[in-house]
Amino acid sequence: xLTRALTAPGFAGVLGYxxxxxxxxxxxxxxxxxxxxxPTVDIDARGRVAPRSPAWRRRR
Length: 60
Prior knowledge:
Blueprint: H1 2-7, E1 14-16, H2 19-27, E2 34-36, H3 43-49, H4 54-58
Parallel strand pairs: 1-2
């Protein structure tokens, strides 16, 4: 359903609930444009999400 919605004109990116959900969405090819909706204390997942971020890659 998300994949179909993202192909419609005017739609881009998805809202992720948690870093683990963002990783899943990215790894399954749903989207690489994911906005995290909530802060997290999941340091392991946060550390795996950050290097995939275009903003993270630009700062290096």
